[in-house]
Write a structure and sequence with these properties.
The chain is α/β, with parallel strands linked by helices. The protein has a single domain, classed as P-loop containing nucleotide triphosphate hydrolases (Rossmann fold). Helix content is 38%, strand content 29%. It contains nine helices and twelve strands. The strands form three sheets. Strands 6-9-10-3-11-12 form a six-stranded mixed sheet, with helices on both faces. The radius of gyration is 18 Å and the shape is globular. The model has no long low-confidence stretch (mean pLDDT 92).
Length: 248
């Protein structure tokens, strides 16, 4: 089976500092991978680089997504191609309602792909269904993006965004950060709902608890800007017990 995501020897600088140092990672359609590792390992840098953040300079290596050179695409083109980034700290956007933000984003992506826009009625049907699955009240979706939301509400809001935009590759940067037990379960259900034979999910996390709900196919340990070890569920339990001293 052809890889959906194929990263080869990726090196990335932020300012004058080299963060990624020859990182290699492949994901096939239908797979969920988790990346764990100590602070400063480069996990968030990898996520931002894949999403197309402009101040992250790729100095070597390659990234193929669905057989296409991902690094040649702008951030908006990557989004339209099916790449979604869930932020560790979702930003607030005062003055822009969630509903307006979501419909604009969805139709912008569809336009780039040469597809027709979704009508207001069609959009409301989609968003009501996705929001209900994540126990997100429609009144919250009428509010400004993330303004006044708790940490758990912001993360649920991102899961609604992911569900509506329906990406092929979802990169979730510490989506479990700051969640209580109930919110973690709801967010995990949103992640699992995205699992299909034609999608891939890359989870970045510090904690075993998320992986108890979203069971990844592969767990990678990242240190000093590259993947240093990969394994199955037992690897996460080992890290939980022993920490990163042996890999950092």
């Amino acid at each position: 089976m052809t890889n959906l995501l194929d990263i080869q020897n990726l090196t990335v600088k932020v300012g004058d500092k080299q963060i990624l140092n020859g990182l290699t990672l492949q994901m096939k359609p239908g797979e969920v991978h988790a990346i764990m590792g100590p602070n400063g390992a480069g996990k968030s840098t990898l996520a931002s680089t894949l999403a197309g953040r402009e101040d992250y300079e790729v100095t070597g290596g390659s990234v193929a997504f669905n057989g296409e050179d991902l690094l040649e695409l702008g951030a908006h083109e990557r989004a339209a191609a099916g790449v979604f980034l869930g932020f560790q700290y979702p930003v607030e956007i005062p003055g822009v309602s969630n509903l307006n933000f979501l419909r604009t984003a969805l139709n912008s992506q569809r336009k780039i792909r040469g597809e027709s826009e979704v009508s207001a009625a069609e959009f409301m049907k989609i968003v009501k269904e996705k929001a209900a699955g994540l126990k997100m009240d429609m009144d919250m979706l009428k509010r400004f993006v993330n303004v006044g939301f708790s940490g758990g509400e912001k993360k649920r809001n991102e899961m609604v965004q992911m569900a509506v935009l329906n990406p092929t590759l979802a990169i979730l940067d510490e989506t479990d950060s700051g969640l209580d037990i109930d919110a973690l379960r709801i967010v995990s259900e949103g992640i699992n709902a995205q699992r299909r034979d034609d999608t891939a999910i890359l989870l970045i996390t510090h904690y075993q608890r998320l992986l108890d709900y979203v069971r990844p196919d592969v767990i990678h340990v990242m240190a000093k800007g590259k993947i240093v070890r990969s394994g199955g569920p037992s690897l996460a339990r080992e890290l939980e017990e022993r920490g990163y001293a042996d890999v950092a």
